[in-house]
Design a protein that fits this description.
This protein is α/β, with parallel strands linked by helices. Helix content is 42%, strand content 21%. The protein has two domains: 35 residues, no CATH class; 73 residues, no CATH class.
Length: 139
């Protein structure tokens, strides 16, 4: 029965994995906070610390986002979006703070024909071929 189930759009991950290096004393203090029950695990501690810092500097982020004309959040670029830009003789400037996704069915040729520049603070999801085609246009 599961043979007739089709995924229309692949699920976008809610998070991006990063790696950090901490000194032994800092790591020990994090582990102590977890052991004492303040946080459920190291990841919970680190996420909370990051959110607190982002909240502390929210005005700077807001002003910089506006000044740099960044799209905030999730921005998906479909094949139809790129084809429409190409037909109109326009080149897209992708400026995203968050997650920018270029659809899986976008060819490297279409991406080069429709995208002038890519600047993503966060993560860019696209096929390896599209990323390679836009490498010289990515900041």
């Amino acid at each position: 029965m599961a043979d007739n189930v089709h995924e229309f759009r692949p699920k976008t991950p809610d998070t991006e994995k990063i790696t950090i290096n901490l000194g032994f004393v800092d790591l020990g203090q994090v582990d102590l906070m977890v052991q004492e029950g303040f946080y459920s695990n190291r990841t919970d501690f680190i996420r909370t610390a990051i959110r607190n810092q982002l909240e502390r500097h929210a005005d700077v982020v807001k002003n910089s986002t506006a000044r740099k004309s960044l799209d905030l959040g999730l921005r998906n670029y479909t094949r139809q979006d790129l084809e429409a830009a190409r037909r109109a003789g326009e080149m897209l400037h992708i400026n995203v703070l968050g997650l920018a996704t270029i659809a899986q069915d976008v060819t490297p040729e279409l991406a080069r024909a429709a995208i002038a520049s890519v600047s993503v603070l966060g993560a860019l999801h696209a096929t390896p071929a599209v990323k390679a085609a836009l490498a010289d246009r990515t900041r």
